[in-house]
Amino acid sequence: MPYGYNGKILRVNLSTNNIEVDEPEENFYRCYFGGRGFVSYYLLKELKAGVEPLGEGNKLVFAAGVVTGAPIGGCGRNSVGAKSPLTNGYGDSEVGGYWGTELKHAGYDAIIVEGRAKTPVYLWIRDGVVEIRDATHLWGKTTAECQEFIRQELKDPGVRTAIIGPAGENQVRFACILNDINHAAGRTGMGAVMGSKNLKAIAVRGHNRPPLANPEVVSALGRWVKENIHLVRDLHDQGTAVVLTRLNREGGLPTRNFQEGSFEGAGKISGKTMRETILVGRGSCYACPIRCKRIVSVAEPYQVDPVYGGPEYETLASLGSNCGIDNLTAIAKANELCNAYGMDTISTGAVIAFAFECFERGILKKKDSDGLKLNFGNASAMVELVTKIARRQGIGGLLAEGVARAASQIGKGAEEFALHVKGQEIPMHEPCYKQGMGLGYAISPTGADHSHNMHDNLYMALGPQLEDFKAVGILEPLPVADLSPAKVRMLVYYITWYYFLYCLVFCQFVPLTWNYRQMKELVRAITGWNSTVWELMKVGERCLTMTRAFNIREGLDKDGDFLPKRFFTPFSSGPLRGVIIDKNKFEEAKGVFYSMMGWDKRSSGFR
Amino acid sequence: MPYGYNGKILRVNLSTNNIEVDEPEENFYRCYFGGRGFVSYYLLKELKAGVEPLGEGNKLVFAAGVVTGAPIGGCGRNSVGAKSPLTNGYGDSEVGGYWGTELKHAGYDAIIVEGRAKTPVYLWIRDGVVEIRDATHLWGKTTAECQEFIRQELKDPGVRTAIIGPAGENQVRFACILNDINHAAGRTGMGAVMGSKNLKAIAVRGHNRPPLANPEVVSALGRWVKENIHLVRDLHDQGTAVVLTRLNREGGLPTRNFQEGSFEGAGKISGKTMRETILVGRGSCYACPIRCKRIVSVAEPYQVDPVYGGPEYETLASLGSNCGIDNLTAIAKANELCNAYGMDTISTGAVIAFAFECFERGILKKKDSDGLKLNFGNASAMVELVTKIARRQGIGGLLAEGVARAASQIGKGAEEFALHVKGQEIPMHEPCYKQGMGLGYAISPTGADHSHNMHDNLYMALGPQLEDFKAVGILEPLPVADLSPAKVRMLVYYITWYYFLYCLVFCQFVPLTWNYRQMKELVRAITGWNSTVWELMKVGERCLTMTRAFNIREGLDKDGDFLPKRFFTPFSSGPLRGVIIDKNKFEEAKGVFYSMMGWDKRSSGFR
């Protein structure tokens, strides 16, 4: 007798203060699983085509998954999705910490936020009781201040929060939402959507862990992770920053707005250097033994508050090498400010790097930059710009729009240096180096994105992945710089599985210790569903197709599946000298991808 | 450390007497698995487009699979494939018995037969030693006579044979190949291809069972089948004929050339009646405890030799109800003759039913029929026609061409009564009743075929299947008479799995006792491959796509994906009165199928 999963979806309308609870049937959960699956389902079903992302008609969906809240590492995450103010297409972002677990323990799988509050509010959800509370006094506060106020007000230091900072309030297009003030739902501007709804925070507290179909198997898998933690030892030791040194060596570290692939100052901003200098602790998500999160503290020249955690690899590269900056404490400060103001560190660094390049090329001048010298390597200008952007002060108002809109306002050829796909800034993985990921940037429904994407080199790097790829029909390793049909197939299978993980809102790192079959066992042990890997891959495929369908409806067809011109121009030096994405192969590879997904080649829509 | 499958492919050219052995690398086996996978691979790779099916340029592939020969029920089968003389497209047929196992034990996974012998020959393969031997003295012999001669000549009563009878020699377009004289590779005319090559038989003897990666798991799965054999008790008790009574009751028993769906004489030809009258034993395939095969014996009015086994459901319906015949002994005799002459019982019955209808409608007259009264229900005429067809005597020469070619020769509107797809006669499952199977008939690469197809009602009938469908993403049962997109998805997933089973050349019935996961475990236990159901489904999908690609190359595009007009006309009486395949829904469903497979809608080829 299968266990029979059941759950609740909370719906809150901030225009009417109406609160409803749906209890979908089990098949709904088994079709969509949660996370990105729920987000794409509700956005596709309930949003009007052409809705204004920052208008009352957009909906903001917070979604956990069917496994979220189970007592095992990887299950503490949630998605946040809405139509994106950055791309005008499908938007969502995943985030770790404890908030997703707390939401499940409070009785809900997801929250759909509709409408717009007249004045600032926050939501308070405690064991199934939901309240819309005034947040006028919290408006303008940093995330840490806001969390502190809420915990005091609710008289419960155990309250978990999802909060926006001033950047979200000011509708910076790449504003993020912070879980527990140091885990960011960073990308696609979900913080701006939350700000546009006058929703400052969602505070949750729950005491009821959903039952498990087979607790023994969950425990056994938890033990497996602990016993095999050596496989991800580096992630514990150096955090995600562990990849920085190798990428730099191989020429894949974005440097000075992707003009180069190696950075002379890489050694100063590496995971190892961080560990040996400013690291004071390691943070975690719910029930996870890996503890890949950093906690840093700096006294001078910048004072960095450890409550905001520490920089990830993406942050070190975007605010560091990609801005030509080798000053680790400045990067740590900028990271702290991004978390305090609620801004995506990738897009923030990218928009600053863009400004630096425009300045160096004379497209932006001192009169445009509030007198700042926007040169690559100028750490204090970088730190100052973070605040200007969050507060939309001076040039910050321009950059708060993201590189695509900023370039179009600037004109004078600035577009060439605005590195984005569909309006979202390129993350810190060089597409000429990881060409599968480059193709993934182009076809991702959220614009340039590295999370729902393939890491071309993983297949060769990790044991369990080797078995996993064989188990999904990829029998041989493929070169990193390759866009053959076989590589495209690898991308399709790889991201199909990742889309499934993002329907679960499961961590990417915990599964590095095990294989697809164990992932399937975990699903069964929690839900009772006797699924096969085929079923789970089909969940991922369904979700990928729904996000595509959403974008097609919004007018984002294959013309949105591009890469900036820069990536078709070879590096003139460094390890990747002469390596290039071949434009014809790239276009061909896109066609193969569409065909494999069953999408029409001409519009990349549906036949 | 994976086990590392390895094997050998034998290649015999009868024009040059050249014999070669290939040893493909492991990835080849893991991509294609065997059976239909190998057949489609070799035909697609090695046949020239437009090759004459009965000419020297066609190749005949006998293929076992990676699990064939393992000591567990279901693993005793093999495929035989070539370009079909019936459809001019992709042809193959699967067959049980002991021959496939013996081939593996003799050291080969497959045999590719090329060219054409100048005079009749047979192959003799013993533990890796291959010999082309004269068969002039065997030409014209029935299958039983031939097998007896070969065993005496080789002085080994344990020799296993794949043989053609006079029908194959005479290139009857639906001639078959018999394993062990009573297991037929029945469909698509493979016996005619073998005849065209002057190849009378392949005799094999092997003493080396391939090693197993994990013998304990194979044994455990074998025990599981025995312990759960009650799930397929009816198949043991009544054979495949067990379905006849229910189909008749529900209106799905093809009667008088598909003019009706219920037969007043059904009770006289049912599995129960057979068991209670002429059944003298139950036959089996290698290592199988189910023993679904029938052995019948009749003394008069017809003498039926038990060495040829007994009729399956398909035979009882095609030579029985569909010819309006309720005389079980006459059907048993016709079945014996079909096995002795080497003719597919489905197409044989279908072409006789076609002749009966043409005669009753005045399209064929007594002068055309060698004086026989070809009325529905005329059992003696039916039995006589079987011999005439095999020997191409009189009207038999016309009918030996199959219904499509015969109708076109007859003219006078006979085409309307020639029930086939792509030239292959419709098997004994009413497409208005099982509409998923009806669609499957239309899109099958081999023309109308029930084996690589879905049985719409199985989902509701069987426990393990219910779990299996959920495990591949089909969460709810669907009506039998339905062609909705959800039903098409069910068809796609169902036949994808079946194509995988036909790459394994695994039995359809043994897996009724277990589920997809156990099938995957069996593959792992035999090969050592740590596959997922996703990988196995992709093997099936790959194979289905290769067979399609072969047909596209031969000019068989979507216009070949039709159903005869009769199935769009409602029954005027019986349980299915008024039930019809809606023509528009049918065309729509085809489009959904193509889209799901990633095939172009216009040509149903590839984009």
Describe it for me?
- Two copies of one chain form a homodimer.
- In chain A, a hairpin with a 4-residue loop joins β1 (9-13) and β2.
- The radius of gyration of chain A is 22 Å and the shape is globular.
- Chain A has helices spanning 26-32, 35-46, 99-105, 143-153, 166-169, 190-196, 215-227, 233-238, 244-250, 271-276, 313-318, 328-341, 345-360, 379-390, 395-399, 402-410, 435-443, 458-461, 463-471, 485-504, 516-527, 533-553, 583-597, and strands spanning 9-13, 18-22, 60-63, 78-83, 90-95, 110-114, 121-126, 129-134, 160-163, 177-179, 183-185, 199-205, 279-283, 293-296, 420-421, 424-425.
- Chain A is built from 23 helices and 16 strands.
- The first copy, chain A, has three domains: 9-205, Aldehyde Ferredoxin Oxidoreductase,  A, domain 1, CATH 3.60.9.10; 239-425, Aldehyde Ferredoxin Oxidoreductase Protein, subunit A, domain 2; 435-597, Aldehyde Ferredoxin Oxidoreductase Protein, subunit A, domain 3, CATH 1.10.599.10.
- In chain A, the strands form four sheets. The first copy, chain A, has a six-stranded mixed sheet.
- The first copy, chain A, is 38% helix and 12% strand.
- The model of chain A has no long low-confidence stretch (mean pLDDT 94).
- The longest helix of chain A is centred in the last third of the chain and has 21 residues, at 533-553.
- The first copy, chain A, is α+β, with helices and mostly antiparallel strands and 607 residues long.
- The two termini of chain A are 40 Å apart.
- The A-B interface holds A 27, 30-31, 467, 470-473, 475-476, 515-517, 520, 529-539, 591, 595-598, 601, 606-607 and B 27, 30-31, 467, 470-473, 475-476, 515-517, 520, 529-539, 591, 595-598, 601, 606-607.
